[in-house]
Amino acid sequence: MNRDLRDIAIDNSDRIIQEWSKEINRLKSANYTADISKELFENNNDEFVNVILNSIKGNGSTKIVKDFSDRIIKLGWPLSYIIDGLLVFRKVTTNTILTEIEQADSEYISEVINNVDVWVEPIIRQLVNEYSVSWEHVVSLQRIALQELSAPLIPVMDNITIMPLIGTIDTERAKFIMENLLEGVMQHNAEVVLIDITGVPVVDTMVAHHLFQATEAVRLLGAKCILVGIRPEIAQTIVNLGINFSKLPTKSTLKKGFMLALEITNKSIVEMQDKSQNIDQLLGLDKGSERIHANSDLKTT
């Protein structure tokens, strides 16, 4: 009986494809494919329904399904389109088979439905699994990339580095900040680290605790932290929470923090009075020597 039902479906494949295409076009707005061009949508529909039919003909062959799923995942087609396509195929195929039978009792109808489910469910399971694995991999890579960008340690001068923090700091991110901070201090031989929290929207007790842990760990390595980017609203929050920042140097701006870092590392910024003269000195020249060289060049010529 199973083989007979399969033959009926294959013999009426053109009709199934036609009815399936109508239903899928009707669901474009529901499965987030309305913005896809008509030509691309129709071409993909033809391939999709043929993949299902070929899978049925091949008694559940998974290779053609996998090849198709890999392709549409790379193109970014939504999972809802796949689910809708398979559910519509199951409904259309069941109706087509039943209309080909002149007389069918409830037991026979149930058998038809069960057989169609046996054909379609493995394809649904495989496509959903392929999508799940693919998206989990993408999300994992994105999470790693965001973590690497979320707590960069940037060397700006010998022994001085800056760590700009943006966004909410939770326990997982705080752990990553700590690890990146300690590794960076060792790698760049930093004496002072400026932790810039200008982009951190909220500093509560938990965030303050994580910052203290980070600065204490840096201190054990022989370096010093300066917390910069203290905005008025954050300062008010810290006072209201009773958080003690007395042991941690703080500055309202990165510029002020950088000046303090220069002082700690025995450096200073000196403004040049005559920039052109100092540049000539750095090059080992002065204006008199330039004129001598110019005159000698003329005589030679």
CATH uppermost class of the largest domain? Mainly Alpha
Please report which band the strand proportion falls in: under 5%, 5-15%, 15-25%, 25-35%, 35-45% or over 45%.
Answer: 5-15%
Radius of gyration: 35 Å
At CATH level 3, the topology of the largest domain is: Globin-like
Percent helix, as a range, is 55-70%
How many runs of DSSP E, i.e. beta strands? 5
Average of the residue pLDDT scores: 78
**What is the spatial order of strands in the main beta sheet?**
1-2-3-4-5
Query: What is the overall number of helices?
Result: 12
Low-confidence blocks of residues:
289-301
Characterization of the model:
With 301 residues, the chain is α/β, with parallel strands linked by helices. The protein has three domains: 2-147, Globin-like (Orthogonal Bundle), CATH 1.10.490.10; 154-264, STAS domain (Transcription Regulator spoIIAA); 275-301, no CATH class. It has twelve helices and five strands. The chain has helices at 2-11, 13-26, 38-57, 63-75, 79-100, 106-150, 171-188, 205-220, 232-241, 254-264, 275-282, 287-300, and strands at 154-157, 160-166, 192-199, 224-228, 250-251. A five-stranded mixed sheet has the order 1-2-3-4-5, sandwiched between helices. The protein is elongated and about 100 Å long.
